[in-house]
Amino acid sequence: MKDNVTHKNKxxxxxxxxxxxxxxxxxxxxxxIGIHLASKGKKIVLVDADFxxxxxxxxxxxxxxxxxxxxxxxxxxxxxxxxxxxxxxxxGLVAGSMRxxxxxxxxxxxxxxxxxxxxxxxxxxxxxxxxxxxxxxxxDTFLLAxxxxxxxxxxxTAIENLYQFIKSAFFRKLRLVLDAHGLKTTFxxxxxxxxxxxxxxxxxxxxxLICVSPQVRDIISREMSDFNLHIVVNQxxxxxxxxxxxxxKSICMKFLGFNARYSGSVEYDESVTRCINRxxxxxxxxxxxxxxxxxxxxxxxxxxxxEIIIGKNGSAY
Length: 317
Ligand SMILES: Nc1ncnc2c1ncn2[C@@H]1O[C@H](COP(=O)(O)OP(=O)(O)O)[C@@H](O)[C@H]1O
Ligand SMILES: [Mg+2]
Description:
The chain has 13 helices and eight strands. By secondary structure, the protein is of the alpha/beta class. 43% of the residues are buried.
């Protein structure tokens, strides 16, 4: 987790997986990355933080665990005591709540405690599967991760919602960081008077703020270079779909000024659904399939901070 929630004995890396829209494949991608990295000797814990539609356990082939995040929030059970084995060595799971326990109901203090507890789990990587959309509790968990991963499917609505999600995340990040530097008023007043100042977009807001003072300019440029966003295109159905990741990447640079990484692309395969319905982890059942190989490449890219390069003919390197 990042320094603004200071943890002295940093033990693990936190990766959070979000998206603008449900159904893009967050849970499938989260669980599959987890299974792949665990098979390569990393210690992984998956955390199901999709409070509305918690089903990550199904993707790793286990029944609904008795205890879930509800026990953490309602009964104060330490998070590390909620980690259950998944039948894959080195892969643990903190199950999500199956009750109608909404992200909206989580209070700020509980959130701080949740972040602290996440960091106390002894493992190499914690992978958090988030609910879709831009609720501020989802956003805050996303923003605190060392790696922020977004999953998009080749559908216009998924792409539109993703852009909205990224904008909201970046906007909230700027606000929080300026608040943390005692510049809350600068941000609030600029935003309040945006019409008078000719600010029509997030890009305009950033350009305006950069000119406020060298301090604000430095803070914003630092946030731009530290904004560690990774793009994953899932459920690709044809050769053209691979370009969606490149487009999202260029939009991030053009309109928000930060360099997102295009970490990987995964094709559509009917066996994914079949495996989920049979409660079989896809990566274990079809380890040599093109989808499993793509997940492998994606996971390695995420580990190493690398990205795929798309040739003119759509082939990915
Ligand atoms: N690469 C894929 N190929 C085929 N179907 C997929 C793939 N990824 C996901 N799916 C299907 O999409 C559904 C939604 O995926 P899921 O991971 O639950 O999305 P989310 O967590 O974003 O809501 C799954 O039930 C599965 O059937
Ligand atoms: Mg899900």
